[in-house]
Specification:
By secondary structure, this protein is an alpha/beta fold. The chain is built from 16 helices and 7 strands. It has a 7-stranded mixed beta sheet, covered by helices on one side. A hairpin with a 2-residue loop joins strand 6 and strand 7. Helix 9 packs across helix 12.
């Protein structure tokens, strides 16, 4: 792929937006919307003092997206307070992950970021207590199918998603950051032990900087869903730009990745953040990861796949191979999560379920 999407150009060099005409602005906003980056992009322009130079109609779109993002942050803060109240009798801190952690701490990726659920990490031995406490506070489990219940509780790294009966807010209760069936098994006790308190939020914690970056990397590059791939890569880019101002962060990053068995996701995170978003990565860090890279032939394939799948799902951003790339990475994601026999059984179940649904709807 030789053509660089307009959104990537603008994320790399925000000042270029002052040269855009109405047609280019229309395309840029459509790409940002497809990537779930509208509010984030508006905030980026504001950071660079460019928002006042945006034409009125695009600026109005960005303004509405920003308003929605601010309301979303308020709702997240309120929801976190209620989760904390639900768990306070158990002496379990609310350890926030991903979007909720970025939002509650005011980190750069939280500015303008929209997400559908709040993720927390609790010790596996306390899962039943946490689930019961949340149910008492109004959250109810989803995915009531017997197979889905077994899938989550025996094989995955989280409970089935829970939804509040009145507010309809969603919460994912994790005990690890990768499934039990995955080949890599980062020690959750290490993550919890290194976690940090959130100022002004009693009993609320977030992952340490290196762990937060590594979790973002493993979430993006060990999963199989890339609808929000560019948004998640922007998270990584902004985390690196923020934490990377401290030399200790870079010194600790690769050793911590080795300790948590996450060197390959880290390699991909740094490679594609630099490749697509021009993120500055110290050469010494990439040298440390040189032995963790895939073989040259495999790397050529992964470049071809990720350089397509990490772009917005908009017709202006892909080519005829883009759907194939996303499908291959979907299969890869499931392969990384499960051993072959379990994966075959799981995919067969999903295929059977998808064939059954049209018949049920027709009835």
């Amino acid at each position: 792929m030789s053509r660089v999407p307009l959104l990537l150009q603008a994320l790399r060099r925000p000042a270029m937006v002052v040269t855009l005409d109405d047609g280019a602005w229309d395309l840029l906003l459509r790409q940002a919307g497809a990537a779930n980056l509208m509010a984030t992009f508006g905030h980026l322009l504001e950071e660079h003092g460019l928002l006042d130079r945006v034409p009125p109609r695009p600026r109005e779109h960005l303004g509405w997206a920003g308003t929605l993002a601010r309301r979303h942050r308020q709702a997240v803060r309120w929801e976190v307070k209620l989760i904390r109240q639900a768990l306070q009798g158990l002496n379990i801190p609310v350890l926030l992950l991903k979007g909720a952690a970025y939002s509650i701490t005011g980190l750069p990726p939280g500015q303008g970021r929209l997400f559908s659920d709040i993720d927390i990490l609790v010790p596996e031995a306390r899962l039943a207590e946490a689930e019961a406490a949340l149910m008492m506070a109004g959250w109810a489990g989803t995915h009531h199918d017997a197979y889905d219940q077994r899938y989550y509780r025996e094989w995955m790294h989280e409970l089935p998603p829970m939804q509040h009966l009145r507010r309809e807010s969603m919460i994912d209760v994790h005990h690890a950051i990768l499934p039990k069936t995955a080949s890599a098994r980062p020690d959750s006790a290490l993550l919890r032990a290194a976690s940090l308190p959130v100022t002004g939020e009693p009993d609320v914690r977030v992952l340490a900087p290196t762990d937060m970056l590594l979790h973002s990397a493993v979430h993006l590059f060990s999963d199989g869903e890339y609808r929000n791939g560019l948004r998640d890569l922007v998270d990584i880019h902004r985390l690196l730009g923020h934490f990377g101002n401290d030399a200790r962060f870079w010194a600790q990053l690769v050793p911590r990745a080795r300790q948590l068995e996450l060197t390959r996701p880290l390699f991909y995170a740094l490679r594609y953040s630099a490749m697509l978003l021009d993120t500055h990565i110290p050469a010494v860090v990439m040298d440390e990861l040189a032995n963790e890279a895939p073989s040259p032939a495999l790397l050529v394939l992964m470049d071809a796949l990720f350089r397509r799948a990490l772009l917005p799902e908009h017709r202006s951003c892909g080519d005829w191979l883009s759907p194939t790339a996303r499908f291959m990475l979907y299969v890869r994601g499931n392969w990384l999560r499960m051993p072959p026999l379990l994966l075959a059984r799981h995919l067969l179940h999903k295929a059977t379920l998808s064939l059954r649904k049209p018949r049920q709807e027709a009835a």
